[in-house]
Amino acid sequence: MTTKPGEKRSRFDPDPMPRRDFLGLSALGAAAAALLFSMFGMLRLPKAAVLTSPSKKFNVSLPDTLPEGEAFVPEGRSVAVFKDTAGVFAISTTCTHLGCVVKPTTQGFECPCHGSRFAKDGVVTKGPAPKALPWLKITESGGTYQVDEEDQVAPGTKI
Ligand code: FES
């Protein structure tokens, strides 16, 4: 509604906003929104962008039916646990060449990446792996075994 010069305007009918003011307020609002979103992004920065890795110590229960000398590989772990007449022991299944996970076979282990082979005690029988698979610390408590993937023991250590 337009008013004629000299006519009194109602307080419920404010003056229309000039285009210049409207554009200025719009630019100010956009800048404030951009600043707010960038601050939100900065608040997220300190949060680690990686997942935590699972603990290197884990418990394992060997199946009662596990044949003597056959590898038991706990799901999601790079470890083979064996049981024989001399005891229980754990061997890492991480290839000593470039770190692929070796697969247990009837003769020992075989690496699917470059063909290295290892005997059941982890000794290299075919390269290019430069050294044997490490034996890992294993302890027993109440029929459950605890394996520590970060703690190596001398080959032949059984409990
Ligand atoms: S990573 Fe196993 S042979 Fe290369």
Outline of this structure?
The protein has one helix and nine strands.
Please identify the structural class as seen in this structure: alpha+beta
- Intertermini distance: 95 Å
Q: Strand order across the biggest sheet?
A: 1-9-8-3-2
Outline: rod-shaped
The CATH architecture of the largest domain can be named as 3-layer Sandwich
Could you tell me which ligands this complex binds, including any ions or cofactors? FE2/S2 (inorganic) cluster
CATH homologous superfamily identity of the largest domain: Rieske [2Fe-2S] iron-sulphur domain
CA radius of gyration is: 34 Å
Beta content: 25-35%
The biggest sheet amounts to: 5 strands, antiparallel
Q: What is the CATH C level class of the largest domain, in words?
A: Mainly Beta
Low-confidence stretches: none
CATH topology of the largest domain: Rieske Iron-sulfur Protein
Work out the helicity level.
10-25%
Q: How many domains make up the coordinates?
A: 2
Total beta strands: 9
